[in-house]
Amino acid sequence: MIQRIQSVFLLLLSLAMLSVLFLPIWSKTDPVSGQTLVMTAFQLAYENADAGMSVSTSTWPVAALAAASTLVALFEIFQFRNRFMQLKLGMVNFLLIVATIGAGFYFSSLGEQMLNVKMPGTFQAGFYLPTLALLLNLLANRFIRRDEQLVRSMDRLR
Q1: Is residue 98 situated within a structural domain?
Q2: Are 103 and 65 in contact (CB under 8 A)?
Q3: pTM, entire model
Q4: How far apart are CA 104 and CA 114, in angstroms?
Q5: Integer distance in angstroms from the first to the last C-alpha of the chain?
Q6: Which one of 10, 58, 90, 91 has the largest count of C-beta atoms within 10 Å of its C-beta?
Q7: What is the CATH number of the domain that holds 109?
Q8: Domain membership flag for residue 58
Q9: What is the 3-state secondary structure (H, E, C) of 4-47?
Q10: How far apart are CA 62 and CA 58, in angstroms?
């Protein structure tokens, strides 16, 4: 039921986590050589790799966690009749989003070691979207709990 506010929050959450799969998460540029290291949800690789550069590193856990979070949020929307199940799925989604953020930190620290420059790398939009998704998940869970309390109060009046 999309007319409920928590369903809108969950839909926005799934869109945010889906866009993590397509946006860059982290990047770092060496000003001397001009090499740029870019991390996406699927790989950590040099943009214009020379022959001497190391091969790309797979970052599939980030993509898997983001995709799983997207699917859980979409499934949670259609569990509107079972609010307890929605709350459980919200907790699972919370853990998946936190794990996505943690995996992003882990692979960005690997990238810091791959390009040995004293300058730090910069986080891109793909890194901040899980934080937005975390906020949307907390808001959705709050409104799901509010609906459950409303139903319980109506049951007491009967």
Answers
A1: yes
A2: yes
A3: 0.90
A4: 15
A5: 26
A6: 10
A7: 1.20.140
A8: yes
A9: CHHHHHHHHHHHHHHHHCCCCCEEEECCCCCCEEEECCCEEEEC
A10: 10
Q: How far is CA 155 from the centre of its chain?
A: 37
38-92 residue pLDDT tens: 999 999 988 876 656 667 889 999 999 999 999 999 999 999 889 899 999 999 9
Residue in the block written with tokens 């998940």: 137
DSSP state for residue 115 in the 8-state scheme: S
Sheet holding 36-39, edge to edge: 57-58, 43-46, 36-39, 26-29, 122-123
CA distances from 23 to 27, 41, 59, 117, 151 (A): 11, 8, 13, 24, 41
User: Cα–Cα–Cα angle for 7, 69, 77, nearest 5°?
Assistant: 20
**DSSP run (H or E) holding 58:** strand 57-58
pLDDT in tens, 109-148: 988 888 767 788 899 999 999 999 999 999 999 999 998 8
In a domain, 158, yes or no: no
CB 36 within 8 Å of CB 48: yes
Residue 137 lies in a domain: yes
Whether 143 and 13 have beta carbons less than 8 Å apart is answered as no
Number of domains in the chain: 1
